[in-house]
Amino acid sequence: MPNKEKKEPIVFDLSPMVEAKVNAVMKDYWAERPKFVLPEPPEELFKMLEYLPEEFEDDNEEKYIDALMLAAQTSYENGLYQFAYVQYHMLFMTAVYYAILKVTVFHEEELKKALYYLLKDRYSDFWKETNTKNGKLYFGSFAIINESDVFMLLRVVGLDNNLLGELKKLVEERNRYAHANGQLQLTSDELFMEALNSYNNKVQRVVELLKNDLIAFYKKTISDPDFYDPDIRAYLDPDEQMIQEFIKEYSLSRVELNWLRKIPLSDFDGCTGGTEIKTIHSALKHYYRELTQDEYQPFDDPYVQHKYKNNAAEFVERELEISAYECGKQGGEFPVYECPECGEEQLAYNADTHRYHCFACDHNYTDEEISFCERCGSIMLRNDAVDICPVCLENMSKE
Description:
Elements: H1 15-32, H2 59-77, H3 81-106, H4 108-119, H5 123-126, H6 147-150, H7 161-178, H8 189-208, H9 211-222, H10 225-228, H11 238-247, H12 254-261, H13 274-292, H14 302-307, H15 312-318, H16 324-330, E1 336-337, E2 347-350, E3 355-358, E4 364-366, E5 370-372, E6 379-381, H17 390-398
Antiparallel strand pairs: 1-2, 2-3, 3-4, 5-6
Helix pairs in contact: 2-3, 3-4, 3-7, 3-8, 7-8, 11-13, 12-13
């Protein structure tokens, strides 16, 4: 039999037709409805972050807070106000737990008594391995206590009946919204903003209860030689010592850092080790300034000026992250020059801010004020007439 040609199957590509039909349907759909635009989250939605730690010993705690914040923001943007409310309540309680955690440091024995009064038969369970991390309490340790009751622990730092009643009311409201009752009760932006402002007001008042204790504890801590003495403290670098041994160790928030950075350096005049204590305290001021300024100017920071006094090269290496070795190896220019004012080789240049600062005489210059000699390349004050340094001008006159 003659070989029959094998016929290829006929394939109908319907995708262009389907795509065209879908596009037509969607065009009609949007023609009848205005396009939905996600609302911009209000600043108040992020206010709670100012009362939560800036540094974390456990990355999981930071991820937990980030997840809650993202959930609240996403819910708000999609008009799911009731769910955003519940998520914001969780952020609020997290801030309260961190506040109570600090109370365990400031008033350890009093808080233990308060815990025993609240928990009674469950007191021993509170300290078990399942409710601690590496044998230490953490913010989540307090979650096993009924939310309405946990506020009672703040009595130790002066919580009054009025604020206690308001805090308990927040929990009652949350219970009304969180239970699976088939009802969406919080459906307007206005009501949500009212609730948001209420939470922000309460957390401010709760954290404020710790202010005097924190300031006293901070002064005592940094006045201890074990903390300030570079020969025996945990970290030689004062910045690292402050971040690791205090800011991270005690879960400090931006609000709390603001209280501490306002303590004047003069408070430590006459103290044993006063110079080193001031250096340590200046490190906290420096940390806060970097944290809160979008356009941080290191040359304007008194701590930076003090830390790198007569050591411009170290400033460039550590703060600007420019290596003298790499510059020499690759033929780049290491931005430390002789100061036109004092003649010391302590003039550092920050290309990001287009500014010069002398770490010897503290003189500052801008790009517009500095030039380089066209003949020898040495740094000089700009001369609108000619960019030739005085030495070269003198040599030229002799030629």
